[in-house]
Amino acid sequence: MALPKSDFLFPTILPDQAAFPATSPVTLRKLTQRDVQVYQEHLLRLTPHDRCNRFMGAICDDRVRAYCADLNWTATVVLGAFIDGELRGVGELATATRSPRLVAEIALSVEEPWQNLGVGTLLLRHVLNMARNRYVSRVYLMCLLDNRKMQKIARKFDANLIFEDGGVEGSLWPHWPNYMSLMEEATTDGRAFFNTIVGQKKPTRH
């Protein structure tokens, strides 16, 4: 199987803050176990269609709660996209060791009002960069056959898509990390920390 020709640190389409309303910039921040309630509320806000796409099938609210409660935070990096202070999109990177190499699965979710604005592409770009910085040798993502949006996003990063049995599996092979990839993640983390501190110190209006 041929490897993708391009380095997915910079995909074909690079979303930036210009892609979003000036009053609603996107802040990317890694979630921790303390954010589990916020993550759960985000998943519960997904429409039935989007929830089905996220979990590869229809699941009830209790299953969503159980998923969040059982999430392995040690093996999973969860990147949140915050708009106006609310979590509106999430990219998950779940790693699993398959000797002798490390592989990972990616899952994305974006709430309906914030779809088609580049949020999913922005999340996938940064999650793939995080995979690269963790020496993941292969990244894969799964989606339903009719999930055209996810397939479109994956193609922006030269994913190899295989269609079979009503589903689609996409694969990417990260390059080794370099100075630029490490700096990109560090800059994103620093910006998130700064925005959190500023938000906490913002004066209350009376």
TrEMBL record:
Q: Where are the transmembrane segments?
A: none
Record protein name field: GNAT family N-acetyltransferase
Q: Pfam families, per this entry?
A: Acetyltransf_1
Q: Which InterPro entries match?
A: Acyl_CoA_acyltransferase, GNAT_dom
Which SUPFAM superfamilies has this protein been placed in? Acyl-CoA N-acyltransferases (Nat)
Alphabetical list of CDD domains matching this protein: NAT_SF (cd04301)
Write the record's keywords in alphabetical order, separated by commas: Transferase
Every N-acetyltransferase domain range: 26-185
The protein's GO terms of the molecular function aspect are: acyltransferase activity, transferring groups other than amino-acyl groups
